[in-house]
Specification:
two-stranded antiparallel ribbon; flat; 8 strands; 424 residues
Length: 424
């Protein structure tokens, strides 16, 4: 809500639309919360077992840490699979609807506001002045309205009082006036003037800019598509890249040749032209050849970046659910070593590892999209590194009892706070 507050204030939106916006944006948060909650739950569970010496009792009964971790690992596989389904089927639609909703909200102008004694030109082709406004009844008095809907005519409407409100379909603004006059004049014919007196008169104005109508569909980006669709699009782009690559090599062979003795690349124009050309003409043809080759190279490069963008999203849909399994390998041995089952300790350790994991994921995504790494490496590096660390921790913890002691942090506290003076 804080992120979108500046785009929502003053729009006069319905409460249901705000709820929709929050729910749609909660979807991508769920994808991040599930792996972290898996780590927190594992740390708390095994921390409580270790704190109550239940791990020691089970080990003395020939139950290894591997057997203790078997049930959580199976549960993490189920959770990871369900998270993948959510990531693949639910999240893309939620991201798409959130984007459309925010786009529609951004295009909606704030609700019409009138201030006593000031002209308002918020309604297109109209200028409205109300000298007094009753805030309780919303009745306007001493109204003056300039109508510019017809460029060749000037219409000035005055009324003693009136109201302004939306039509039933929220598409038009209705100005309901009482006891007034309409003054009409024609720009082309200065001698033409007409005055109409009315007891009741309604003016219908276009209110589309103030009403909200949600769009139904639109272009979908890579974060709004499922895996199958992205694979299909990536294959199509790969086919186009192959075509552009062949055209690029054809242009290179057409414009360039290699002198085997000097090992230097020259424009083909110098080789094929029988008659000597002026220096300026040669330079022009060289620049033209360079532009054609650079343009072909850029097209191939852009296609490769598009492929990497879709492949990054494909691998991400698998790597984040797989983190649920990786965090079991991290959380179980750490919980046994810490011997603390409280939420505070578990949340602190979980936050550290999740920030590390997320830094790997974000960094890998950006670098993979720029071509520094392959999409697979960028998206799976965090799982591979933390997975290896988790396997090592699990093996070490199973072989011997290792305890993490937090007394080191006490040394960071000044002595006067650690050893307060005892009052007489």
């Amino acid at each position: 809500m804080m992120k979108f507050a500046d785009r929502l204030v003053g729009k006069g939106l319905d409460t249901w639309l705000i709820i929709q916006l929050v729910v749609y944006n909660l979807s991508w948060m769920v994808v991040l919360v599930v792996p972290m909650s898996t780590l927190v739950a594992t740390l708390m569970a095994f921390g409580n077992l270790s704190q109550n010496n239940e791990v020691t009792i089970m080990k003395s009964s020939s139950i290894s840490l591997y057997r203790m971790m078997l049930a959580p690992l199976l549960a993490s596989i189920v959770v990871g699979y369900l998270l993948f389904l959510f990531n693949d089927k639910v999240l893309p639609d939620a991201n798409h609807q959130a984007k459309i909703l925010m786009s529609d909200i951004s295009m909606k102008k704030p609700t019409l506001s009138l201030e006593p004694g000031f002209f308002s030109q918020e309604v297109y082709n109209y200028a409205i002045l109300a000298r007094n406004i009753d805030e309780k009844s919303n009745v306007l008095t001493q109204i003056t309205l300039y109508d510019y809907t017809v460029p060749t005519k000037i219409n000035v409407v005055t009324a003693e009082k009136g109201k302004i409100y939306f039509s039933a379909d929220q598409k038009n603004l209705i100005m309901d006036l009482e006891n007034g006059e309409i003054h009409e004049s024609d720009v082309k014919s200065s001698g033409l003037y007409r005055k109409l007196v009315f007891e009741r008169h309604k003016i219908t104005m276009d209110g589309d800019q103030f009403s909200f109508r949600q769009s139904q569909d639109g272009f979908r980006g890579e974060r709004e598509l499922d895996v199958d669709t992205m694979i299909y699009i990536a294959d199509s782009i790969r086919t186009d890249r192959g075509k552009y690559s062949r055209q690029f090599h054809k242009e290179v062979n057409k414009y360039m040749f290699v002198d085997s003795t000097a090992e230097t690349i020259y424009p083909a124009v110098l080789r094929h032209d029988k008659k000597p050309l002026s220096y300026i003409r040669v330079l022009d043809k060289i620049k033209s050849a360079k532009n054609v080759i650079v343009s072909g190279y850029k097209r191939v490069e852009l296609k490769e970046m598009d492929i990497a963008k879709y492949e990054v999203e494909i691998y991400k849909k698998f790597s984040i659910p797989a983190a649920c399994i990786i965090f079991i390998l991290i959380g179980a041995p750490l919980g046994v070593m810490v011997k603390k089952g409280g939420f505070g300790v578990a949340a602190s350790i979980s936050l550290f590892f999740f920030l590390l994991y997320w830094a790997f994921l974000i960094g890998g995504e950006k670098l993979a999209e720029r071509g520094f790494f392959s999409p697979f490496t960028g998206m799976w590096a965090a799982n591979i590194v933390l997975g290896i660390a988790g396997i090592i921790l699990t093996i070490k913890t199973n072989r011997e009892t290792v305890t993490i002691n937090f007394s080191f942090f006490k040394k960071l506290i000044p002595k006067r706070f650690r050893y307060p003076e005892i009052p007489d």
